[in-house]
Write a structure and sequence with these properties.
single chain, 145 residues, four-stranded antiparallel sheet, globular
Length: 145
């Protein structure tokens, strides 16, 4: 539960810093795989999106207002941060533990530790365009900012 609240707080902070007043709250649940969006003023449920399982890693991209969610056995999906509408996904070789979104949402650098690689995804094409093998560096799960 602590991770869910921290992720929601970070998304709320990022949207506030991007100029939104009373931004929606996003709650991710690694157990049931659902992302729930609540109104930032009334706290009423606006929408939810079910990712199936392990929806626990998120990044917010302020320019595009996208919320990226890592989930399941190996996917990163994007959703509209206000409405919760799914915008597509990119498949990777194993569960993504962390990733960083390039400003403007063009590329996503995805840490896939069980595949011993960083996958570089082109969001506009919804595909992996490069894989950087990590060799002996297998025990770390680096997190972005």
């Amino acid at each position: 539960m602590r991770h869910i609240l921290i992720a929601s707080f970070l998304v709320m902070l990022a949207t506030t810093l991007a100029g939104q007043q009373n931004p929606p709250l996003h709650l991710m649940n690694g157990d049931d795989g659902e992302v729930r969006i609540f109104d930032g003023t009334s706290y009423k449920l606006i929408s939810s999106l079910d990712f199936g399982s392990d929806a626990d890693g998120t990044r917010y991209e302020a320019e595009t207002h996208r919320l990226y969610v890592g989930y399941g056995e190996g996917s990163v999906a994007a959703m509209d941060s206000a409405t919760g509408k799914g915008l597509g996904e990119i498949k990777v070789d194993a569960h993504p533990e962390a990733y960083e979104v390039e400003k403007g949402g063009g590329r996503i650098f995805i840490n896939v530790p069980n595949a011993h690689a960083i996958a570089v995804a082109d969001w506009s094409r919804r595909q992996i365009v490069a894989r950087w093998q990590m060799g002996r560096l297998r025990g770390e799960f680096p997190q972005g900012s």
